[in-house]
Amino acid sequence: MAARWYVVHVYSGFERKVAQSIREQAQQKGMADQFVEVLVPTEEVVELRRGAKVNAERKFFPGYVLIKMDMSDESWHLVKNTPKVTGFLGGKGRPTPISDAEAARIQHQVQEGIERPKPSVTFEVGEQVRVSDGPFASFNGTVEEVDDGRSRLKVAVSIFGRATPVELEFGQVEKL
Asked: How far apart are CA 167 and CA 126, in angstroms?
């Protein structure tokens, strides 16, 4: 049998612990060859904490773990009987594997998230923001343009009664 990707539902917040537990149990029971890969899909995001940019990790699918494995009664029982696992995604009987294309898309998304961290906050044109850093700190303004690629905004700030466009980084503004 060829290994296929399966989605396992787990307690939210225990994804890493479950993945590690499955790897260890497979090793102990001599079934490591049936488990090709155990994946917790995550991406890097840039957050602002106390005025500093911090890289953090965000899960794409909280409460789910992806496993590429050969499905047999033994491997099914190993995963199903792992603590904090609620079951496989699929019908009542046998779990349904996801398509290879779907698995490849998720892996690509994970790889992209590692290579280019995304900002954890998104801004929209017309949104009201407050400048929290730089020479225009404590000014309020309206978002005129959003450049996600460069993580920059063009904000119209009212200076002496006139709207002045100012280019700022995502980290220099906060939503109102």
From this structure: 15
d(CA 91, CA 72): 16
Q: Nearest Cα to 141, choosing from 169, 111, 165? A: 165
The alpha helices in 31-99, defined as continuous H runs, are 73-80
Half-sphere exposure of 90 (CA within 13 A, CB side): 13
Count CB-CB contacts under 10 A for residue 83. 10
Q: Residue 34 phi/psi, 5° resolution?
A: -85, -20
Q: Is residue 121 pLDDT above 80, yes or no? A: no
> Would you give the DSSP letter of residue 23?
H
What is this structure's pTM?
0.67
Instruction: Note whether 166 and 136 are within 8 A (CB).
Output: yes
The pair of structure tokens assigned to 87 is: 């079951």
Identify the three-state secondary structure at position 17: helix
What is the spatial distance between Cα 51 and Cα 57, in angstroms, rounded to a whole number? 18
DSSP 99: P
